[in-house]
Amino acid sequence: MSDKPRPAHKIRHRALAVTIWKNNSDKGSWYSVTPSRSYKLGEEWKESDSFDCDDLLLLAKLLDEAHSWIMTAEQAERKAA
């Protein structure tokens, strides 16, 4: 069994993705976001945190979606508490 942390949510469109992570501490929880772009090098898939100009508008939309997802998750957590 792996100790690798699992994302809370992932939003993907074509080669672009935004991974949402839930972080916990003694002061409470919060979310962070990691944008990435997948590409193939030979037969191996890699991820980069570098984006072309053509990626930016779509990345902005994915980040907007991530923000909405986080707001909804935080609201649900407050209701459950």
Please, could you describe this protein's structure?
This protein has 81 residues and is α+β, with helices and mostly antiparallel strands. The protein has one domain (9-80). Helix content is 31%, strand content 42%. A hairpin with a 2-residue loop joins β2 and β3. It is globular, with a radius of gyration of 15 Å.
Overview features:
81 residues; alpha+beta; 1 helix; globular
How would you sum up this structure in a few lines?
By secondary structure, the protein is α+β, with helices and mostly antiparallel strands.
Q: Characterize the largest beta sheet: strand count, sense, and whether it forms a barrel.
A: 4 strands, antiparallel
How many β strands by DSSP?
Answer: 4
Radius of gyration: 15 Å
Q: What letter string, H or E per element, gives the SSE order? A: EEEEH
